[in-house]
Design goal:
The complex is a heterodimer of chains A (about 130) and B (about 325). Chain A has helices at about 5-20, 25-30, 35-50, 70-85, 90-130; strands at about 20, 50-55, 60-65. Chain A has about 130 residues and is mostly helical. Classes of the chains: A mainly alpha (about 130), B alpha+beta (about 325). Chains A and B meet through helix 5 of A and helix 8 and helix 9 of B.
């Protein structure tokens, strides 16, 4: 699966949220003003990448995502891991160690945050007791 | 397929159990999201009891109906010692039932073997010690793996690793031990055994996995509530103990019939937040009043009379004949 640029991701987000839309609908829902032709080209590129289905209605194309957001994320993660593991063995080990590190860092951050909350609660209780 | 009288009875009972269990099981699976939403409004102990009852309902009720209706109606109304044709569908349902039961028994035997092995290992490498605030001796095991668990069904033992004893201050250790005592009092390991023993919805398909996962979460919360008993200091101590044990490292579920303090790290943040926010406490066991008991007995008498009424037995026998052919 090809990587998506920032505008492509924004357009996909809009389509996942609102479903069937034409170029005009997407242009209206963008956070920043963009030319109609830019959005049209982006939608056409996403269609060619196989991420969108389209149908013609009253001379305008209506686009809708072929995969749900969850399916797309799952496929992206699967492709990424498969690509990494297809390389020599060291790459696979590196990927696993990076994932373990990332999970570890996430856990550490979560535990730090929980500890901070416990300290605050202890202080609050101590203060309440004093008063 | 032509089968003699008694073999036909066995075949019919097994097939009936399978069909009833499948129908009730599907109903329970469909009702699971609603049941979980309902349970979330209850106190954790009540919620865990409700979800356990729901999980065991298909097998218990199917067994009751087969033993209380199918077998008596067959024995009373089927002409004795006759040879009769049994449809292949009926035989297939009976064989599927046998597969379900055998798979449950194998799962149960494997869980029991792993748990007994775990307890023996802990007793071999550990030693009994009296910890502060704990009346009964606790098995303390030397080794780097951090754990605090309740193991066993008939005589549950508290097992704790030296690293946890050294890492937790006395207040936190007492709170953690009280949490495990709560599991002991509510016989959670025995309930785990029942969950493993209860047949699946279909062979090799864990249709009740979500219900069991949520039951496990509520059982942990109920034990937290008992350990804390509405005391803010205990609540903070238990929250701190959970975080300290999590910091020592991952605590995998040691064996299927063992309850650990932190078996599921996924729930850690929610448990800690809950302890800090609510200072939860478990009200004392409400005694069921005599009126409720009498009402229960009074309600079951007409049900039993209805079960053994000739019309009921004849109707059930009609259904069994339909199933046979």
């Amino acid at each position: 699966m090809e990587a998506l640029g920032p505008l492509e991701i924004t357009v996909m987000e809009i389509l996942w949220q609102h479903g069937d839309s034409n170029v005009h609908d997407v242009t209206q829902r963008l956070d920043r003003p963009l030319a109609y032709t830019t959005v049209m080209t982006t939608l056409d590129r996403l269609f060619k990448k196989g991420l969108l289905d389209r149908r013609k209605s009253d001379r305008a194309f209506f686009y809708q995502p072929r995969l749900s957001r969850a399916e797309w994320e799952q496929k992206r993660a699967g492709d990424f891991v498969a690509g990494f593991l297809a390389a020599p063995q060291t790459s696979g080990e590196f990927l696993v160690s990076c994932l373990v590190d990332a999970v570890g860092r996430h856990d550490e951050a979560l535990l730090d945050e929980l500890e901070r909350k416990i300290r605050l609660k202890r202080k609050e209780l101590y203060r309440r007791r004093k008063t | 397929m032509s089968l003699p009288y008694l073999l036909r009875l066995v075949c019919l009972c097994l097939a009936s159990f399978f069909l009833l269990h499948m129908a009730l099981g599907f109903a329970v699976t469909l009702a699971t999201p609603v049941a979980i939403r309902l349970a979330e409004r209850m106190r954790p102990r009540k919620a865990s009891r409700f979800l356990l009852a729901l999980r065991l309902f298909p097998s218990a009720f199917s067994l009751l109906l087969v033993a209380g209706l199918c077998a008596p109606s067959y024995l009373l109304l089927e002409p004795a010692f006759t040879q009769e044709e049994v449809s292949l569908w009926c035989v297939a349902a009976a064989l599927l039932c046998v597969t379900l039961v055998v798979l449950s028994l194998v799962r149960c035997a494997r869980a029991a073997r792993r748990s007994i092995g775990y307890i023996r290992y802990c007793q071999l490498v550990g030693r009994q010690e009296r910890l502060a605030g704990e009346s009964a001796p606790v098995w303390v095991v030397d080794g780097p793996a951090p754990f605090l668990a309740l193991a066993g069904i008939l005589h549950p033992r508290l097992i704790i690793s030296r690293s946890v004893v050294n890492a937790l201050p006395s207040g936190e250790l007492a709170a953690a031990l009280r949490h495990e005592q709560a599991h002991q009092l509510s016989r959670d390991n025995f309930k785990r055994l029942l969950l493993i023993l209860a047949p699946d919805l279909f062979p090799l398909w864990r249709g009740f996995a979500r219900l069991e996962r949520v039951w496990n979460r509520f059982a942990e919360w109920a034990a937290d509530d008992y350990a804390v008993a509405g005391e803010p200091h205990r609540s903070i101590s238990l929250a701190s103990a959970l975080v300290s044990v999590a910091r020592l490292g991952a605590c995998p579920q040691a064996a299927p019939l063992v309850t650990s303090l932190l078996a599921d790290n996924q729930d850690l943040a929610e448990r800690v937040e809950r302890l800090l926010r609510d200072f939860p406490g478990e009200p004392g066991e409400e005694r069921k009043s005599l009126t409720v008991k009498i009402a229960g007995v009074a309600a079951s008498v007409p049900v039993l009379l209805l079960m053994f009424h000739p019309v009921t037995l004849t109707s059930v026998h009609g259904l069994l004949e339909y199933l046979t052919h």
